[in-house]
Amino acid sequence: xxxxxxxxxxxxxxxxxxxxxxxxxxxxxxxxxxxxxxxxxxxxxxxxxxxxxxxxxxxxxxxxxxxxxxxxxxxxxxxxxxxxxxxxxxxxxxxxxxxxxxxxxxxxxxxxxxxxxxxxxxxxxxxxxxxxxxxxxxxxxxxxxxxxxxxxxxxxxxxxxxxxxxxxx
Amino acid sequence: xxxxxxxxxxxxxxxxxxxxxxxxxxxxxxxxxxxxxxxxxxxxxxxxxxxxxxxxxxxxxxxxxxxxxxxxxxxxxxxxxxxxxxxxxxxxxxxxxxxxxxxxxxxxxxxxxxxxxxxxxxxxxxxxxxxxxxxxxxxxxxxxxxxxxxxxxxxxxxxxxxxxxxxxxxxxxxxxxxxxxxxxxxxxxxxxxxxxxxxxxxxxxxxxxxxxxxxxxxxxxxxxxxxxxxxxxxxxxxxxxxxxxxxxxxxxxxxxxxxxxxxxxxxxxxxxxxxxxxxxxxxxxxxxxxxxxxxxxxxxxxxxxxxxxxxxxxxxxxxxxxxxxxxxxxxxxxxxxxxxxxxxxxxxxxxxxxxxxxxxxxxxxxxxxxxxxxxxxxxxxxxxxxxxxxxxxxxxxxxxxxxxxxxxxxxxxxxxxxxxxxxxxxxxxxxxxxxxxxxxxxxxxxxxxxxxxxxxxxxxxxxxxxxxxxxxxxxxxxxxxxxxxxxxxxxxxxxxxxxxxxxxxxxxxxxxxxxxxxxxxxxxxxxxxxxxxxxxxxxxxxxxxxxxxxxxxxxxxxxxxxxxxxxxxxxxxxxxxxxxxxxxxxxxxxxxxxxxxxxxxxxxxxxxxxxxxxxxxxxxxxxxxxxxxxxxxxxxxxxxxxxxxxxxxxxxxxxxxxxxxxxxxxxxxxxxxxxxxxxxxxxxxxxxxxxxxxxxxxxxxxxxxxxxxxxxxxxxxxxxxxxxxxxxxxxxxxxxxxxxxxxxxxxxxxxxxxxxxxxxxxxxxxxxxxxxxxxxxxxxxxxxxxxxxxxxxxxxxxxx
Lengths: 169, 800
Ligand code: FES
Ligand code: FES
What we know:
- The structure holds two protein chains of two kinds.
- Chain A is of the alpha+beta class.
- Chain A contains seven helices and five strands; from the N terminus they run ββαββαβααααα.
- Chain A has a five-stranded mixed sheet.
- In chain B, helix 6 (238-249) links the parallel strand 12 and strand 13.
- The longest helix of chain B is centred in the last third of the chain and has 28 residues, at 548-575.
């Protein structure tokens, strides 16, 4: 009945025995204690549970743990490296893009994935990328401001908060 | 400009770092050893008599630790409103009836969610379906099925606080489905209408909408050895929750502890004490283990309250110059299967409307009606959105009738500083309403854009602008009536602030810390805040009733003032100087004009502990929302003091109507909010932007699709809240009016600005396309139908 899965989460490998119908979100939250990923809808509609799977954002509530076996997963807990925040996290803090914070982990994952893929996205691409991340608090204005700032920062490594690409990988 | 160094600055939130790293703990993130998962069995019937609930098979299932039903609640009833007139009417678990689809029947705690769900399927409910009513007009028809056959007076929560009780303790049979009524009349109504130059009457309808916070509701309960109940809850006011939970479980309030959890958005939807919370406590007691109940998105959207379905009728008589002479308003709301906040919302429609325009003669009637629909509760604005939608749409229509510009009409009737509110006696000590109206009109390009629907040059796309105004109180008498705060200075000159506030996104941990830092003369980073825990913090009024910044903020300022006074007195002794000659800044106290005579805060604090019989420096402060009011004002007559300060906002919307598809696109919303003094402009802006976004959802797209008591869109795919693509350009400005009673002059922000958007958009749609939509949401089908009707009749048209 149960299956053996090997999840590599935020650079750490876990061998787990799980029932095949369990979602990645459940296993992250319940078995690994990584509660940063949020359960907002359990339906793939809100983006609060987004994680990176081999660098691409996925809804962990729609991903089975067995599907994720053998892949590299990054959750919000894995974004900050070496004691400092990721530039996207920094920009969110600075711009007041965080209110209740429940959508924030998913937003950060989506934005990080977007900027890794397209370091200079157009406005339309930013709107599109975030269109699956619901936020009831901010009205998105400050979130979008934060994303624009993060883009500038990451482009110009001299500015505070920017990181060299190899650190980001 | 102020010379403050911490307040008034757009400083980053103190909780942001925890939130961006995933470290912030919300209720569903709590993990305790042996913790069980709870699930609720809910009624699939809108109205039924419960004959028997057989839980024996569920109890025998492996992994099930406890099952509870109405038998475990001893006839208990709870409710947000629990007064002698409106006694609590909601059993946490069904006693003999269920009254809406989703009503709680039983609850199960098991080792995991799957087992708990399986157990629910094993519970057998013998029942008999009853006739049901689903609309307020049907429910008001003589002979309609009664949703409640009796009221159960008993002893109410308010009697503990001095409200006069009813001698009656037997159930009082009910004759109709009227759950509550508010009636207000003043001035010469007949004379006002008779003498008016022009009278018109309009009717508006508002669909129910959901709060839809991103965090679904959740509760964790565990009992300690001493018989104390501990809980983490999705809350907006922990002392209120503690009080109601203690009543519900028959415990002294001190035997209930609410622990800190961050709250993932609430918007009014998390203030009530819900049956699932009581069920978690009962299950935990029975199982002897911690229990987590996490509601699904569907349960959150259908069983934890939603906003009211409302019908508003407005009749106004005006002079030739557009001055209001008399007004007659009736509001009817469907309050659902239990009263919820029905009695409050019909009262609030009166009291949110009254501070906006001067009305010499008024008749106001509000009716809350029981139906077999889900229960309604406060949602951001709590009535203000629909009363303001109705009244300011109506004002726009009056302006056109009279040939007076809407800005001018608003300005002529708008209230100003110093006015006293009828019935409550509330005084507008600060009022930036007219300034807000003018600023919104100016920044929105009113003069250039109004009545220029063809400016796009397109036959298909028409643009227009519309305007509206709103008001919102800052804190009101309600349990626990007051807030207190404690500021404890630390060895290094920093301080820990203890305040009961619940951080649910509004930024209270930050603004309260800013107030303490400013008053104490230290940077924000020197303040640590302990909040959201009933055991660790003094009483707090609650992060609802828009009282956070105003009431708790004042308490925090007083606590910091108290600590600072003690600090300076100690310094005066040490420096052998007069207190009046001292100045404190950058964590150093020095003698004015003799800068070498100085001591660091740290040194003074250490000296205080060493020398003054071990006294640490601890400041305390407390503040009441309405200091001279004993109890809450009457919900049925609106008499009695209500608040010390009202915030105001004016909002302009610019829209583009696609006359082929009926789609309305909002291009720009300009808001000017009179929040007294912005304690943190970035947070104020964020609050306004959130209000605007939520209001646009309600205006254009959101509607709980309720048919025969069943919600047909209980998920985020079908209940669509605004997304990035729906975000218009927003201009969010602040009017500084310096409220004398607020901390640093601050008052309400975060709720008011949700209320003007609907009328502003509806008025803009009329400006653009000549069709008047009087039912929310303004969906394409409604716009198209109105456009077709207009074409058929050849002109501008009223539509529904
Ligand atoms: S919880 Fe996965 S998308 Fe909402
Ligand atoms: S910050 Fe609350 S949902 Fe986005």
